[in-house]
Specification:
5-stranded parallel beta sheet; Hypothetical protein af1432; 54% helix; 2 domains; 381 residues; alpha/beta; Rossmann fold
Length: 381
């Protein structure tokens, strides 16, 4: 058994030394300004690349290694800082690089405009060395922390996905084990649970856009229904072998006992629900298919004689899958029927045993259901 793994977190170093050596791109159309700013940043331990125009800045920003931060002059000919920043934000390669505006414009409106364009910070000329270094360091540390948080979130999401997949696998194996337990009492059903699970999934998917069913049959519902379908006959574990495996026709008394398997199954699932600390959604569908998959559209089914839409949709879908598989399969009391004859029987039971719209969808995709039957035929095991 796998032991759950702990997710290990290593907090980033957020000291000034953590960002030393970072590559900075500085942009100004005045070479003297570039020289002063470049020397300041270089002496502080940063790598520096300089551009004298907006177009050059955009070209350098996409080259590897890409800069960790851009210090960008606003007032430049041809392409000003606002235009450069807009182009940076539109490019997936540069949209996340923080940009500090450096400008002689020092009124509040200009500063506000800079932030509205997406600047991370705003420094006015003439520059104050300590202020520039502090602002640069703060933005680099913020980016480092943001990258660390993004990586940790990605790791956490991957771990959650792994554990969810593992839990779904455990759930599927547990359901299959319970279903096979029922099959040990009724050995001639063979791959019945695999086939009916496939039928139910396909049938629900084919009805997903139908006006009557679209509100219910979303992807999550279909996934849960397919997961719970193997439990539809779990109640057979409570039926005596003398009845369950009888090769001939059951007596009226034996038939009444046989019919109790639907309630026995739903009762067992309901007891499992009560044992849980919180509701398990797929068990609700499992209980429905176990309890009502022998109801009929015309109200002549069992155990409750429900009629038409009073029968849960999950059970109506399961009824079609279960009856189809019973008809095409050999049992101790009957031979398998040819597919053409089975199609005729199902068609004749439209609006009687089966929901008419479900019947239409099943017959329209009959070859696909037959293919599932062939894929999981008892002779293939």
């Amino acid at each position: 058994m796998n032991t759950p793994r702990e997710i290990l977190y290593s907090e980033p170093s957020l000291s000034a030394d953590a960002v030393k050596g970072s590559l900075l791109l500085i942009v100004d159309d005045v070479p003297a300004n570039l020289s002063i700013l470049g020397d300041l940043l270089h002496d502080a331990g940063y790598q520096v690349k300089a551009a004298t125009s907006g177009r050059a800045a955009l070209r350098y920003a996409t080259q590897e290694p890409r800069p960790a931060l851009i210090v960008l002059d606003v007032m430049m000919p041809e392409m000003d800082g606002y235009q450069v920043l807009s182009a940076l934000r539109q490019n997936p390669l540069t949209r996340d690089i923080p940009v500090i505006f450096l400008t002689a414009l020092d009124n509040a409106r200009d500063e506000e405009r800079g932030f509205q364009h997406g600047a991370a910070d705003y420094i006015t000329k003439p520059i104050k060395p300590d202020v520039v270094l502090a602002r640069v360091r703060s933005q680099l540390l913020a980016r480092l922390a943001g990258n660390w948080l993004r990586d940790q979130n990605a790791a956490l999401e991957a771990e959650v996905a792994r554990r969810m997949e593992e839990n779904e696998l455990i759930q599927a194996v547990s359901i299959r084990a319970l279903a096979h337990l029922a099959e040990t009492r009724d050995p001639e059903t063979g791959n019945h649970i695999l086939r009916t699970q496939g039928y139910v999934r396909l049938l629900a998917t084919r009805l997903q856009t139908h006006a009557r069913f679209a509100a219910t049959l979303d992807d999550a519902y279909i996934k849960m229904l397919a997961a719970s379908a193997p439990l539809h006959d779990i109640g057979k574990v409570g039926i005596p072998d003398s009845i369950l495996q009888k090769p001939g026709k059951l007596t009226p008394e034996e038939w009444e006992i046989m019919k109790t398997h639907s309630k026995l199954g739903s009762d067992a699932i309901e007891q499992a629900e009560r044992d849980m600390d919180r509701p398990v959604e797929f068990l609700a569908l499992a209980k429905e298919v176990a309890h009502w998959h022998h109801e009929r559209w015309d109200g002549r089914g069992y155990p409750d004689g429900l009629k038409e839409d009073a029968i849960p949709l999950s059970a109506r879908l399961m009824t079609m899958a279960d009856v189809f598989d019973a008809l095409i399969s050999k049992r101790c009391y009957k031979d398998a029927m040819p597919l053409a004859e089975v199609a005729d029987i199902i068609s004749s039971e439209r609006d009687r045993q089966f929901d008419p719209d479900i019947t239409d969808a099943f017959l329209a995709g009959f070859e696909e259901f037959a293919a599932i039957a062939a894929q999981h035929s008892d002779s293939a095991t």
